[in-house]
Amino acid sequence: MLALRQQLNRQLDDRARAKAAHQWTDTGYVFTPEDSQPFHPDHITRDFAKLVDGAPVKSIQFRDLRHTHASHLLLVNVPATVVSERLGHVTIGFTLNVYSHVLPRMQEEAADRTEANGGAGAGARTRTGVKPSGF
């Protein structure tokens, strides 16, 4: 939140300077160049690629951040309804279908937690030899 507040302050400063020069148009965008017009998508993609190239991280594309974010949210047990809303999906079913690759790890965790609390978690699964659907 601090970073967004700092960006808002920078943008307000830019707006004041541009209004004084009659160049500012309030577009409603959070991040804009000093002329207040939206960035071209290629600009953001290009700048992100430069950042990734200069960092000691696995090479990913800008659009991969959305999928990484959604997968991470599901893995840390954020309710699927919240993830679906954040992504702007029309239905939770769509979200669960797209991110079903995350669900097997979540199923394992649920079984382990149940077993740890005295329930019939992973142990019941291995005794029967049958895995629940989704594995």
Unreliable sequence segments: 124-130
What is the helix/strand order?
HHHHHHH
* C-alpha termini separation: 38 Å
Structural class computed from helices and strand pairing:
mainly alpha
How large is the count of helical segments? 7
In percent, how much strand structure appears in the residues?
Answer: under 5%
Average predicted confidence as pLDDT:
79
Shape: elongated
Helix content: 55-70%
Account of the protein in words:
With about 140 residues, the protein is mainly α. It contains 7 helices and no strands. The protein has helices spanning about 1-20, 40-55, 65-75, 80-85, 90-100, 105-115, 120-130. α4 packs across α5 (about 90-100). The longest helix has 19 residues, at about 1-20. The protein is elongated. Mean pLDDT is about 80; it is low at about 125-130.
Per-chain topology:
Layout: H1 2-20, H2 41-53, H3 64-75, H4 80-87, H5 92-98, H6 103-116, H7 122-128
Helix pairs in contact: 4-5
Q: What are the defining features of this structure?
A:
mainly alpha, 135 residues, elongated, 7 helices
Task: Please give a quick description of this structure.
The chain has 135 residues and is mainly α. It is built from seven helices and no strands.
